[in-house]
Amino acid sequence: MLHCRLVRSTAAHAEITAVRTGDAAAWPGAVAVVTGADLAARGDMAVLFGPVLLDQPVLAIDVVRYIGEPVAAVLAEDPAVADEAAALVEVDYAHLPAVFDAEEAFGSDTARLFPEPPERDPSFVDVTLRADHERNVCNTFTVVKGDVEAGFAAADLVFDDVFDSPAAGAVPLETHAVVADARGDRLTVWSSTQTPYITRRQLALLLGLPLNRVRVIVPALGGGFGAKAYASVEPIAAALSRVVGAPVRLHLTREEEFVTSTKHAMRVRIRTGVMRDGRIVAREATAYYNAGAYAVISPRKVMFGAYGLNGPYAIPHVRTEAHAVLTNTPPAGAYRGFAINQCAWAYEGQLDMIAERLGIDPVEIRRINLLRDGDTFCTGETLDHLRFHDLLDAAAERIGWDPDEPVHRDGDLVRAKGISCVIEGTITPSTSTATVRLGPDGSVDVLTSSVEMGQGIRPALAAGVARHLGIDPALVGVSYVDTDLTPYDQQTTASRSMYSMGGAMGRAADDALHKIRELAADLLEVDPADLEIVDGQVRVAGVEQQSLSLGEVVRRSQVGNVIGEGTLVTSGGLDPFTGQGVGSVHWHQSVGAAEIEVDTATGHVRVLRYTGGVFAGEVVDPVGAEHQCEGCLVFGVGNALMEELVFDQGQLVTGTLADYMVPTLEDMPRHHEFELMEDPEHGEVHGLGEPALPPIAPAISNALYRATGVRIRSLPISAEKVLRGLRERRESEQAAGQVDEVTSVGAQG
Amino acid sequence: MSELQELPDDPGAVKLPDADGRVPVRIDVNGRARTLRVRTTQTLLDALREQLRLQGARSGCGVGMCGACTVLLDGRAASGCLTLAAVCDGTDVRTVEGLEDPSGELSRVQEAFLRHRAFQCSYCTPGFVLALEALLAVDPSPDEAAIREAFSGHICRCGSYSRIMAAALEVAGATDRREQA
Ligand code: FES
Ligand code: FES
Question: In this protein, which residues make up the domain named 2Fe-2S ferredoxin-type (chain B) (predicted)?
């Protein structure tokens, strides 16, 4: 097996004028040095990939579009030798105009990432593209409801604000890793992907192989959080393996991980019209997603932001638009919470400014506006099973919300509470398939292509299948992913697996039970309709003594095993010009409340307590659910207070875990709790990977606002920004002589 | 907190590299004497993973910030990514693989982590387990503050901190604020 070390671009946007590989190739132990031009010259593989647009080169060809882009690969048996040889590759660049900010890149006259429009991957059918490569736009999505101009005309007050979220890293503790073996006429990859079937399709397209000759095996991952969705390192290892005719391993360093997939930096311009009684009557918002240099999944992601900007409120007149804009920064991809984090950061922050201006309590203004059963969402869907009001009331009670509670002061330390509410969809349409195999000894195999990455999908599926079959979960084994053996699943993202794969699994279990019933009817010489299956036992209804276990049925009927299959396909989708249609098969509803303490001398913010509430439908694995929520809290606290990929002219300056801070135990609130609201009658399982996350940063920020009057509009809430805000407030108070808090803070917009 | 190991007092203890740029080191790993030839730049983490195929210690950052690579070096928690294998000659190294007793029984700490399901992806788990083992070796009943201190250089990105603390407090014999798993 050969180890790969990549030579990465040091230019943000440039033509490659020369790549000198001679010294590297001559380095003792180096087996091969490969460039993008080498791959292109072979003619036996495609050299561009991407899940929607085929825009990303395996190794850069002619042009580099971000600092950190792979330009050449060095292979050696000893990874240390590959490292040494890689340092000897020299690349010359002729710089091109570069752009780093999404709003600047949107229609930029100076910087254009793609002179020609990239081709699209023909098999990605559910995304309608409104790309405009001349304006660096890889997709746009618009949602229109009612008549937004009329709404603003009727409003008593209009608020106009801009909110920013920076690029961030998902930082799975294990970085991306892949081994690819393209010997013979097959390709086998062992990959850390969250999207085995999409990755298989992407690799088949790249190497020109039929799907069934590409095998993707996925062992347990050391975290994913979205960053490992869609092919990224796999095409490189696969192409190199074909070149050298040996298995190739590529395991990213942390520095490389940071430039491989990021959370979209996003700017949101948001205008909201309200009546004096607190009703929101109009919203117009535009989101600029910084997609980075390649589209990856941004073309699909704009949909989530476009309807996400509506928030969980009944607003009669809405026009929201989201643009995914290419810039000379590392590609942004999937990230826990989709783009809903960035949307909520904007609309929930603005809502507290509105509440203050109107003199309405933040909890009350949400009660007034939250969606209720029967309301029409901005997508035209009539919503039901809404529990926002219950979730909000319960969270307010848990945090001890009191509209008249004064801010607590103790010297420089100031304490206050904040609240926030969020709506989020799950991927729709979507498809999962599953197989359940009953053995003659009563044990059960579950074959699934849902990826285990620590979120606990395997124990959760085992618990679900065991319950379905009425047997002990210890009898159920859940597979890891191997596309040669485990059936199709669309992807392990978007908090969809428990609903989608769980649903497919339930159908597969039912199918197996149906077959068991037929077999048992033959064995017992009765009509299948006279049989009942209770607690894993098949018996003639009412006759307890004549019963057979599931295993006995398999054994005695000599069928070897009983195989049940299940498929769950959800349908829906939204029109990209109007946003009308079916946005999501169910809606994640989430509320958060934080109590914070800010040190006004240092600007340092600590989260003392956090409580969240999520509508979970039905909780399958309570410990797993608790883990998912606490995981969201790690991300929420990190996003709120510390995490930011800082770029200087496209060069990442927070590229190690010594510079990029993620929460440790000490950064976490000492007290936290999550309510998982269930609705057993409705009996629908909702995923819990993400819904708890988006309210966290706005709740913390709103608490800071109540504590100090300082409104932070750009994440993270660093001590520096807080101190600056406090100083500005003091100065404007002095200038005004007497403070009119409302005008000095709330109305500036 | 993981600590950097000091260089041996006697400079003669560091051997000079051979023609391949490698030095021989004898390390007692999980109770077994092993002789390795390592590059002078090679980390202990790399030697354990690549040469000895002990993959319990993991790389998360390579710069001493995440704790995933923690091993016990002469009984003290150390970052495998910051420790050069070449200076480990004559040391005693224990990895998570070496915690179970010869009959295969897991350590108290491991049992507690399992009982509390104190992990999600478990990539960070060996680091937390060894940090706690190192602490317990010098303080059999540490209080919460001491445990927090021992975990301060460890990241669990999945967010299993509460259950990790619950497991640790149980082993430490301290009262647990949370109900058990
Ligand atoms: S890999 Fe050693 S501390 Fe992170
Ligand atoms: S369990 Fe995944 S990093 Fe701790």
Answer: 23-99
**Interchain contact, A627 vs B157, CB within 8 Å:** no
Question: What CA–CA distance (Å, rounded) separates B132 from A235?
Answer: 41
* Domain that residue B154 falls in: 108-180
Rounded Cα–Cα distance for residues A536 and A345 (Å): 49
CB A719 within 8 A of CB A603: yes
Q: How far apart are CA A589 and CA A544, in angstroms?
A: 44
Q: Is the ipTM of this complex over 0.90?
A: yes
| Tens-place pLDDT, residues A368-422 | 999 999 999 999 999 999 999 999 999 999 999 999 998 999 999 999 999 999 9
Nearest Cα to Cα of residue A302 among A279, A323, A276, A282:
A323
Q: Which two tokens stand for residue A163?
A: 């909110």
Res A341 pLDDT > 70: yes
Q: Of A126 and A87, which is predicted with more confidence?
A: A87
What is d(CA A267, CA A343) in angstroms, rounded to the nearest whole number?
A: 9
Q: Is B65 in the pocket of ligand 1 (CB under 6 A)?
A: yes
Q: Which residue of B has its CA nearest to A81?
A: B39
Q: Which of B5, B43, B65, B124 has the most ligand 1 atoms within 8 A of CB, as the residue to mutate?
A: B65
Q: DSSP class of residue A21?
A: -
Q: Domain check: are B46 and B89 in the same one?
A: yes
A635 touches chain B (CB under 8 A): yes
Residue B180 clears pLDDT 70, i.e. is over it? no
Pairwise CA distance, residues A302 & A306, whole Å: 6
Check CB contact of B51 with chain A, cutoff 8 Å.
Answer: no
Give the ligand at the shortest distance from the Cα of A631.
2
Of the bound ligands, which one is closest to the alpha carbon of residue A170? 2
% of chain A at pLDDT higher than 90: 80
Confidence at B47, pLDDT banded by 50, 70, 90: very high
- Asked if the C-beta of B1 comes within 8 angstroms of chain A's C-beta atoms, the answer is no
- Is the residue at B124 inside a domain? yes
List pLDDT tens digits, range A250-265.
999 999 999 999 999 9
Claim to verify: residue B78 and residue B115 sit in the same structural domain: no
- CB-nearest to B157 from A456, A662, A665 is A662
Within a domain: B6: no
Residues B29 and B89 in one domain: yes
For A226-305, where are the E strands, in sequence order? 248-251, 262-263, 265-274, 280-292
d(CA A153, CA A504): 49
- pLDDT confidence band for A123 (50 / 70 / 90): confident
* Residues of A whose CB is below 8 A from B157: 171-173, 223, 225, 634, 662
Task: Give the nearest partner residue to B158 out of A220, A631, A658, using CB atoms.
Answer: A631
Judged by CB atoms closer than 8 Å, whether chains meet at A172 and B121 is answered as yes
Chain-chain contact of A456 with B120 (C-beta, under 8 angstroms): yes
Taking the whole predicted model, whether its pTM rises above 0.90 is answered as: yes
Domain boundary among B75, B97, B119: B97
Contact flag B120-A454 (C-beta cutoff 8 Å):
yes
* pLDDT 10s digits, A353-364: 999 999 999 999
Percent of chain B with pLDDT over 90: 81
- Which CATH number do you get for residue B69? 3.10.20.30
> Which residue, A477, A440, A467, A436, is CA-closest to A563?
A436
Instruction: Please give the structure tokens belonging to residue A237.
Output: 């290892």
**pLDDT at residue A709 greater than cutoff 80:** yes
Q: Which two tokens stand for residue A109?
A: 């006259």
CB A474 within 8 A of CB A515: no
Q: Is A454 in the pocket of ligand 2 (CB under 6 A)?
A: yes
> Is residue B2 a part of any domain in this protein?
no
> Which pairing describes strands A476-478 and B76-79: parallel, antiparallel, or unpaired?
unpaired
Q: Does A634 touch chain B (CB under 8 A)?
A: yes
Cis check: omega of the bond before A716, within 30 degrees of 0: yes
A474 C-alpha to center of ligand 2: Å?
Answer: 24
